[in-house]
Protein 1
Amino acid sequence: MAFVLAAAGSAVGLGNIWKFPSEVAQQGGAAFLMMYLGCCFLVGFPVMVAEIAIGRATGKNPVGAFKALSPNPIFPLVGLWGILCGVMILSFYTVVAGWSLGFVFGEAAHFLGFQGAAEVLMVVGPGTKTAVFAALFMAATTFIVSSGVSEGIERVAKTLMPLLIGMMLLMIAFVVTREGSGEGLAMYLKPDFSKVDMSLVFQALGQAFFSLSLGMGALITYGSYMSRKQNVVESAAWVTLADVGIAFLAGLLIMPAMFVAQKSGIQIYKDASTGDGVAAGAKVLIDEDGLVFTVLPQLFESMGSGIGLVFGVGFFVLLSMAALTSTISLLEVPTSYAIDELGMSRKKAALMFGCVITAIALVISYRLSLIGTFATIFSTIGLPVGGLMICLFMAYVWKTRHALAEMEAGYPGIQSSLFAKFWPPLMAVVCPLLILTVLVLTLIQQFQ
Ligand code: PFF
């Protein structure tokens, strides 16, 4: 279980609860959900198996792993690109994680009657408060990674997941009784395929990679710590299911909550053409970065002060912990690279990257538009590009038959399994072609 818990800890995070519902709300609801599920199972899962297999076979960081398996000089560059993506993703991720941490104290202050403090703590905007909490979050992450990826993560993940799922189920049960929730549920669950266009598929693919922690070598790194007694394919399946399941629940909570909040006068969408006015079904979210931070506090408020306090504080504690198990994996990638390839000590490596990332996060804290820019370049584009290269490496350089032989350790019957039939063509043709098509068509659309 140890590997599954740590990898699920990496996968489940702000991507599921902060980003996914906003994407769904922005991209037309159920149509996005369908495309997202398709991307996770058809592309994400096979790539995850590839990453873990590469990591476990070599016991190395993303750069070292590619070097160990082939003399081809291009692929270590793919590892370096992954490390760059990880550093840049963590720089904005920690800003959002800092908001979540601030909301733990903000919700407490609000329900205990310290309105002044609550107003300061529950701001999702540029400024010093955002910078301070982002720095705090990075300090905690750096401290944990510098003392070694420990059993602590598994223990946290083990209690975190059931608590998170339990709490979200209770909140869903509450929200569906409220006026307006039906509209949100319908938008989330009734697909309108006329909404599917290239930009939706592009976002869904990027979201799948981001949410499953794929494309930048995080699971190569975690795979390098995995025992040969473990079943790679089964582990990847559990991580994928846990991650997709929690994202689905987050949508089931936040989509209805959004429409409930709208009924009570909070503006969620603005009219794309005129730039103002409330309009259910209009195109543009008012504040994509802040959806969980506006809609959920409203929900806690409506629970009454006692229950609201427990849920408000509890939810943001869990969200912050989920974010922490993800930031740890994001920092572990460059750290393990610097330890193995540059001969640095763990403490020095973690501290160096921790400081660089904190510095970038401080800049982002005052210029929040960078979150969107970085997310597009290093996540929505960067991670699928990494994934594409991993597929090509697996199919044409290391070769899937060698990987399958390696995966026999922990999965004795793999050669005659259904997986062994489907996975090689997925790596060689289906996944690379899909990723390439989506990226190229999106690029072409940009220039039209
Ligand atoms: N999967 C994490 C989330 O959904 O919040 C984010 C993430 C972690 C992306 C680690 C990439 C990564 F390597």
Protein 2
Amino acid sequence: MAETTRHPFLEDLSKYRGAPPTTVVIFGASGDLTKRKLIPAVYNLAADNLLPPDFHLVGYGRKEISDEAFREMAADAIKEFSRRELSDDVWGRIAERTTYVAGAYDDAAAFDRLAEHLQEIDEKVGREVQPLFYISTPPSVFAPILENLGASGLARKYLGQPHHAKVVIEKPFGHDLASARELNRTITGVLEEHQVYRIDHYLGKETVQDLLVQRFANSIFEPLWNRNFIDNVQITVAEEVGVGARGGYYEQSGALRDMIQNHTMQLVALTAMEPPGSLDAEAIRDEKVKLLRAIQPLHPTTDVARAQYADGMIAGKPEPGYLEEAGIAEDSGTETYAAIKLSINNWRWQGVPFYLRSGKRMARRVTEIAVQFKRPPGTLFAGGGFDIATNTLSFQIQPDEGLSLILNGKVPGLETRTQPVKMSFRYSTTYGSNTPEAYERLVLDAMIGDGTLFIRGDEAETSWQLYTPLLQAWAKAKREGMDRYPAGSWGPANAEALVEANGHRWRQP
Ligand code: BG6
């Protein structure tokens, strides 16, 4: 497709969005996510002039460190992880408004100190500053943090006004239906739903947001977007990395909890939901929940496959198997790969399988949604001499973001030979490559109070409702039914069998 200049939206983002004066408080201030994503996101928002004039950053954590030490840690994080280089000018503007409060998460007195600290900021600035609490800690302390936000009065600060307190909650949002419900109960005990921003960082990805635009701003897709024309949909979320140093976490999680139940289901919801009545957050989230509710319960043998990576080669380098990784039990029953066949029982999708797969240590990192259309009637180009592919529209979510469509064409020449051809559009050539990271968009949206790209409580529960029986069945089965796949491959044989049973094959992304 034609190359165009950089999109004007990216030239001056500050024209488009404005947040009120805000103090962002990060719980888990010295954690990995804070360093890799949150601090760089704040920094890049500042560089794009998207932070409000009276912006403040407060780190909160158990470690006793000074304001200065926290600032140094933040500057190092920007140097290491930001998409832009550290500029003293941009960082200086944030650094002078960056402070740190030390305290335990279950220490009510420490939260009172935090409340005083925020009050002092408001007084210094001379106006009411919106508090945005970002809970980026291990899930074991979500509940005490929420309870102390309630007890200290912080949760209700400025409630009734647009700049009321807001709370962002990182994943994992529970580990099954019961724990997600329990967490929702704790949340609703101290906050109103409109104050809560449950993160799924996939929703912050440009290409994921583009799904809505592609589907609903192009009239050519909608008439085809149903069981009459679509044969199956394949969603692949493949990673090249293994569990690395996260063995302890991963053993309790596995591919289903870590990737499928949240990120992959968001891709399903946005691909399959009905057109919302408006772009309003609730209109979109209502449609997503309706879609999730239409998914049929999973059959633990015919609808799913799971496996662990064995040793293998990735990019010419030998990699160990999952059971050899640090922190992994030698008889571990945790899956590093899961494949699922979803049946959506509604007017649009009945009979169209949605295949999902996600795994660590696969051939390469790629996330894509491939919509495979039905074949045309086989009267003309059906014989053996014709190379005809299924028309496939694929959204490449990452990396090398873009969209492609596989068509069939005639090879130039004096005989009639056919060949599949690919039409594609790449973000890097159309928009340039330095697009904002997911967390920039999400932090900004939470500051603005736009919940569209966050998960509503009922949405999280509906997804857990689908997967909890399967998790229970797997926990009971231990290693029974667990397949293996070599590191660096496209997955196990049982996942091939899952799609072949329906006459399909996994597409090679
Ligand atoms: C996280 C998972 O939520 O998403 C990780 O816990 C995974 O295991 C990561 O690697 C993938 O995110 P992305 O944005 O790199 O696809």
